[in-house]
Amino acid sequence: GKEGLLSTPAVSAVIRRRDAGFVPFGGFILTASHNPGGIDEDFGIKYNCENGGPAPEAVTDAIFSKTQSITRLLSADAFPPIDLEKEGTVEVKGEGRVVTVEVFDSTVDYLETVRACFDMAALSSFLARPDVSLAFDALHGAAGPYARKVLVEALGAKPDSLLNCTPLPDFGGPACPSHGHADPNLKNAAELCAMMGVDVAGNATAAKAGAPSIGAAADGDADRNMILGPGFFVTPSDSLAVLVDNCSCIPFFKDGIKGAARSMPTSCALDKVCTAKAIPCFETPTGWKFFGNLMDAPEYTPFICGEESYGTGSNHVREKDGLWAVLAWLSVLASRNPDASQPLVGVEDIVKGHWATYGRNYYARYDYEGVETEKANELMTKMSANMGRWDESLFVPFKLSTADVFSYTDPIDKSVSSNQGVRFLFLDGSRIIFRLSGTGVSGATIRLYLEKYVGPTGDHSVNALEAVKSLGEVALFVSQLAQITGREAPTLMT
Length: 494
Description:
- By secondary structure, the chain is α+β, with helices and mostly antiparallel strands.
- It is built from 15 helices and 21 strands.
- The strands form six sheets. It has a six-stranded antiparallel β-sheet. Strands 6-5-7-8-9 form a five-stranded mixed β-sheet, sandwiched between helices.
- Helix 8 links the parallel strand 10 (259-263) and strand 11.
- Helix 1 (8-17) crosses helix 3, helix 3 (106-115) crosses helix 5 (143-154) and helix 7 (236-245) packs parallel to helix 8 (269-277).
C-alpha cells in the first residue's frame, strides 16, 4: 500500500478484489494491532490466506512445524529501495527472475468494497442533516486514510469530524491522549470519550449536552471499533446484537442474514436476537479465524459476527472491520430517522429500545495484564481440574447450571479446538468466564468476563460495572485469583 500502509480489513479486501479476485495466495501484515506501537513496543506478523482471512490453525500449525527444521536464513540484501510515496509498478531483476512491486492506493479497493455493502447516497443524506454530527478517532492508526476516503470524500462528512487520523509509527506515543495505545476503549480513546461526554466507567458527563450524534474509534490496524452516543457507551456485545437485529436496513443484508456468530466470551445478547428471528447462531473460540469457515459456507451467508474485544464484521471481507461497523451504525440511524422534521432517534434510544425488547445482558471484563505466565497457568489448571466437583454453595446467590472447559468443533471442517476457557453458567442466564489472552505485550493476561441477564421488564439503568459486581466477587472467591497471582485488582475494567 502507498506509504507502506494497509489496514487489516483492507488487506482482506485487496486479496479478494485485485485483478480477477482471489489471485493472491495470501498476504503478510506487520502490525502492533491494538497494542502500543513504535520501535520499542509491540510488533506482530500476521498471515492471511487466499480467502483474505486469518490463517486457520491447520495452516499456523504447519508453519510452526516447518520452523522446527530451518537450517539456513536467506536475505535479499541487494534488493533496491522502493519509493512507497509514489503509486506505480517497479520491476526488479534478479538471478533468473523478475520481481514486480506495485505501490497502490488501497483506500480505493476498500471504498469499492463498502460501496457494495451500503446505500452510500442515503448515508450521505443523513450526515448532511443539520441535527446530525459525527466524530471519528483513528487513534493515529491505519484507519485515518480510510476514514478520509470514505467518511469525508465519499459521504461528505466534515473534515473536522476526524480526530487523530494521521498515522504515526508509535500511535502518537506517551504524550498523546491515548498514550500511544491505539485500543478503542473507554480508557485509551480518552479524547473521543471526553468529547462524547462518557467517562472511563461508561457514565455520562456534563459534556453530553454538546456531543456529536455518534462517536466512533478504531484501533491501530483499523479492525476494531467502539461506538458511542452522547453520554452513552455501546458495549461491543450490544453493538453486535443491535446490528443483527437491524441488518435488513443495509443493502448487503436486504433479505436478512443466514448465520451469525460470536466468540464464546462475548455476551449472549446476540443469541436472544437469533432465537427470536430463527437465525443459526454459533459460539466460537476467541479469534477471528474461527469465523472464516462459517463465512465461506454458502448456507450461512450473508453472515454477521463479532467479539467482545471490539471486533465486528461480516462476510464482505474475512476480517473484523472497524469502519464497516461505523457505516453499519450510520445505516441503522438513517433508517430510524426517515423524517428530518422529527426529533433525532439516537444511539442511546436505539440500544434502550433493544433492551426493552430482548432484555439487557449486563457485561464487564476485568483484565489482569502482565501476570507471571506460571501463575496464570496455575489458576486455569486448578479450575479446570475441579470440573464436575464444584460445591454449588460457593456460588450463592447464583445457582450454577453448568461448569466446563470450553471446546469447539468447527461445523464445517469438524476440526476441534480445546481448552478455550473456563465457563460457569447460571440458571438465570448469567455467566462467569476465565480465559488467558495471547494479545498482551508481556507476560500473560488473565481475562475475567462477567455477564448478568435482566429481562425486558427489568431495571436496565444500572451501570454495568455495578450490575456485575456481586458476580465478580463470586468469581474471585471461587477462583482464588488474588491468592494465586498476588493481584488484588485488575489492570483494566471495561
